[in-house]
Design a protein that fits this description.
The chain is built from 4 helices and 9 strands, in the order αββαβββαββαββ. β8 and β9 form a beta hairpin. The chain is an alpha/beta fold and 165 residues long.
């Protein structure tokens, strides 16, 4: 981190990794307590579906954004945090180098996915990624929000000297 390198290298060859989408059938390898808890919930839901013959849709919602999103909670998305900073006249603060990729999905699409899950019969346990399928960098989101709101440009605050995007 001190060197400003935030992307992990390939464990075999040491080269930069190419980012890609993660399909629903990718092996589960939780790296945080939050992720491990979500995997545990999926395992419980899957066991229930097998035991009862019931159906479960596991909606894996990516970075949700939209109207009235909170900015003062532990799980606030970066879009709402950036928007709130811009509303105060402050530049969005981008951690690391701003190249982190996230898939942002509008809250209306998440609501539609929930309605479909509640009204569509499923085949046992079915995980579904609720996302746009088009990741964007955190830095690009901050810059676009700043432009759209006529605010100050984002500032990169992690990984070395403070710099504008």
């Amino acid at each position: 981190m001190a060197a400003g390198r935030f992307e992990p290298p390939c464990p075999r060859c040491g080269r930069d990794l190419d980012p890609g989408l993660v399909p629903e059938d990718a092996p589960l390898d939780p790296r945080s307590t939050d992720a491990a808890t979500k995997v545990a919930q999926e395992h419980l839901a899957c066991a229930w579906a097998r035991q009862t013959g019931g159906a479960v849709w596991s909606l894996r919602c990516h970075n949700v954004y939209g109207p009235r999103m909170p900015c003062d909670t532990l799980y606030a998305g970066v879009a709402s945090v950036f928007r709130s900073a811009l509303e105060r006249g402050e530049p969005p603060r981008v951690m690391e180098d701003g190249r982190q990729r996230r898939d942002f999905v509008h809250v209306s699409d998440v609501a539609a996915a929930n309605v479909l899950a509640l009204t569509t019969p499923g085949p046992g346990f079915t995980p579904v990624n609720v996302c746009s399928g088009e990741p964007h960098t955190v830095g690009d989101v901050a810059a676009e929000l700043a432009r759209a709101m006529g605010g100050p440009p984002p500032v990169v605050v992690g990984g070395g000297a403070r710099q504008a995007l």
